[in-house]
């Protein structure tokens, strides 16, 4: 099944929404900011366009969207000030799958434009922000129109679910998808243009390592507890395949080399707490398991709902939070994240 038919982050601003439950992803954006800053400053050393094309791929909705864009624009404006140059015209493209809550983003644009005007005054180049619905596993933008591409917490989603009976299917699907991603961007990014991509990964070359998929394993345990009570059919669990793949550094480097359009500038890795750490807004009132459950629910509920039906969702995520609490009481598991900075060849 194609992912674009079933995947969207939970919409709106309610208790289970992505907007209210994306602190882990916001922390990832903060941790990768120095890499983003370095890539943009290096881009501006060799290429100072009058009109700069910036894309955020898999932008989703909620507060992270415009905070990323604002960070990128601040870095560029700071450099312009330092050099005594006028700021360029900003063309900002926000991409996600068509079922993303683009209306949420569009609704917050007037306030964002007003803030830009207040903070930057008349010397600020015009800024045009648009939504681009579609899969990043394919062409999205006109040729050579982008200077900087950002993507956070999105590229571990594959384009489709793989048949479970083929052991290597996930790894092959990742290779196919990532290569198509690079090929598509290679046509859209100008020579010397840069991409900073961060996503879930794994240290080991073995794709079945716990590190890459243990949260899915615990979700499967929650589902199996419902099978035992006759609330979910076992075949339904067996036929659910998450279109998710956490690659290892060797796989990434090998695909980039094979595709041939980009050079790796940096590839770093870092760990991040499953529950977002202590700075999360509801850290005091919810258990770690409840926080992990809310974060994961905001991301995967649309997919689970289309397979298992809406009615089991509250029960499932309640069970999942207890299983995660039990797991975290014994071991402090963390996500392994990678951040990749690559440059388009001339
Ligand atoms: C966990 S969210 C991350 C959102 C945001 N970048 C952040 O850091 O908060 C992942 C996003 O990737 C999007 N996504 C997944 N596969 C995609 C694809 N093939 N093309 C475009 N967007 C995709 C999902 O719809 C989702 O909104």
From TrEMBL:
GO BP: any one term: methylation
The keyword rRNA-binding appears for this protein: no
Keywords, sorted A to Z: Magnesium, Metal-binding, Methyltransferase, Transferase
An annotated Gene Ontology molecular function: metal ion binding
SUPFAM superfamilies from the UniProt entry: S-adenosyl-L-methionine-dependent methyltransferases
Pfam families recorded: Methyltransf_7
Entry keyword Methyltransferase: yes
InterPro entries for this protein: MeTrfase_7, MeTrfase_capping, SAM-dependent_MTases_sf
Record-linked PANTHER family: S-ADENOSYL-L-METHIONINE:CARBOXYL METHYLTRANSFERASE FAMILY PROTEIN
Protein's UniProt name: Jasmonate O-methyltransferase
Source organism (scientific name): Liquidambar formosana (Formosan gum)
